[in-house]
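Handout, section B. The chain below has 98 residues.
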Amino acid sequence: MEVTVYILHCSDGSYYTGLTKQEIEARVWEHNAGTYDGYTSKRLPRRTRLTETYDRIINAIARERQIKGWSRRKKEALIALEYETLPDLSKRGPVRAE
């Protein structure tokens, strides 16, 4: 079973992170149609910014939780595929040698 973790860019400029077992296009359609009451029902997503596919749902859940805990800047670095900058954008900052 494939599970997709995704980041949507919403109409208010915010980002929404979720996961789905269905095709991403169908899930985004549900968000835009307001099928479920929640975060995106009032912030209609403009577009999908990132998708990652996992074979195991437990890995997808862990990744979704990880991304949800990140700052906006860190999410934007991930979307831009700037992986090398992610450690510097952590809340505590990089570990520095003294």
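Note. The chain is about 30% helix and 25% strand. Compare this with the example in section A.
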